[in-house]
Structure formats: C-alpha cells, structure tokens
Amino acid sequence: MTRKFFVGGNWKMNGDFASVDGIVTFLNQSADNASVDVVVAPPAPYLAYAKSHLKAGVLVAAQNCYKVPKGAFTGEISPAMIKDLGLEWVILGHSERRHVFGETDALIAEKTVHALESGIKVIFCIGEKLEEREAGQTKDVNFRQLQAIVDKGVSWDNIVLAYEPVWAIGTGKTASPEQAQEVHEWIREFLKEKVSPAVADSTRIIYGGSVTADNAAELGKKADIDGFLVGGASLKPDFVKIINARS
C-alpha cells in the first residue's frame, strides 16, 4: 500500500497575530503539493484565525483536547469545540503532555477514544526518554503507550501515529534515519500482531524530533517513515522544504 505522506507542524506555545500572519504567508505562497497532507497546530487562541487565513490545502489541528464534550474543566477544550471551529485534527499524547503535565497512558487513551467518537482525527504521539532508550526499554515504552489505545478497540482509520523520541525533541539531537526506521518498523510489527496486518499496512507512522530541512529528505527515504511532526522548524519558511522532502 502507498501511504500518503503527512507533515504536521506543532507550533506549541509560540506565536502572536504578527507571527501567525508570517507563517500563513509562507504557507499560502508555497507551491501546492497534492501528494502530502499538511496539518499545522497553532495555540488554541489562534485556531480560528489560522483556519480563516490559510489556504484550503493546509489543515489546522488543535494541540490538545479533553475526554468529554463540556463541563467544569477550566482551561480545557473539547473535540466538540474543535469540530465547531471546522477543524478535523488534534494532537494527543505528546511527550510534553505526558512528562510536563503528567498525563497518563489511560487518560490519553480516553481522550483519544472521545476525539475519534466526536469525529476528530488524532495525531497520536509516542516515544521514549533518553534513560529509557539507554536502558534498552525503547520497545517496552512505545508498545505500552500504544497498547493503551489498542485495549480501547479504537478504529485506526483516523489515526496517524507520531514516533517522537523524547531525547530528540527540541534538543538538536535527531535519531539517525536508521534508528528512526528501526522503531517505525517495530511499531508496524506491533500493529500487525496486536491489531491486524491491514491496519499495520495502512497506518501512517510519522517521525518527530528535531526534524529540519537538512535531514528531512534522508529520513523521508525510509520505508516506514510516512512523514514528520515538526516543532520549532514549522515556524520558519524552511518548513516548506520539509513538506516537500519526498518530492
């Protein structure tokens, strides 16, 4: 199966109207690439603004959402709200949610189920910390994080998996193409065993962790790397080069 390349831009807690305008400008002026799904995730206050100014070929995602439609959950947003803005995507399970804000595998799984049931597609993030990799626990950690949604019996039609080794996020360190491909291959084998060969073959597994215009092409050549989830580099014009890494 040919899996369509997918490039996400996670702006994290960065931006103001002026900088959003700058990003919108270089994305709107970039050549359209019908062979790539492009999704950017601004901070919540700028979701509607970004959507209204970006061209149709660039979709907008929320960076997070909660597990229920509404209620007394100060500071949270729901999939229903994301959908009400006309958006299709949310990022869940990002390492910063896991390790800075203490979200558990169980909570992230509940959030994923609710988002999918609400009609929102999910970029589901997994990844190991440096000490876990050095202890030989890479498989264990990633498989545990995946098992949490496998156990929920989710439909995989609207999930993109993002493998983001925590030790490579924002550090300037990047897993080598060979290291990234190895883990992506493990993940695909896990899906084949735990879900089905069809899901393993069709699910897009993207790589995140200090992806740049310089290393994207080499990473994108690997058989099981179906795109990228990009952090800081998505705020700069070179993001367009990453989008076109496989062109």
UniProtKB/TrEMBL annotation:
Coiled coil: none annotated. One of its GO terms (molecular function) is triose-phosphate isomerase activity. Pathway: Carbohydrate degradation; glycolysis; D-glyceraldehyde 3-phosphate from glycerone phosphate: step 1/1; Carbohydrate biosynthesis; gluconeogenesis. The keyword Isomerase applies. It holds the Pfam family TIM. GO terms for cellular component: cytosol. Keywords: Gluconeogenesis, Glycolysis, Isomerase. InterPro entries: Aldolase_TIM (IPR013785), TIM_sf (IPR035990), TrioseP_Isoase_bac/euk (IPR022896), Triosephosphate_isomerase (IPR000652), Triosephosphate_isomerase_AS (IPR020861). It catalyses: D-glyceraldehyde 3-phosphate = dihydroxyacetone phosphate. Its EC number is 5.3.1.1. CDD domains: TIM. GO terms for biological process: cell redox homeostasis; determination of adult lifespan; gluconeogenesis; glyceraldehyde-3-phosphate biosynthetic process; glycerol catabolic process; glycolytic process. It is an enzyme of class 5 (isomerase). Homodimer. Belongs to the triosephosphate isomerase family. This is Triosephosphate isomerase.
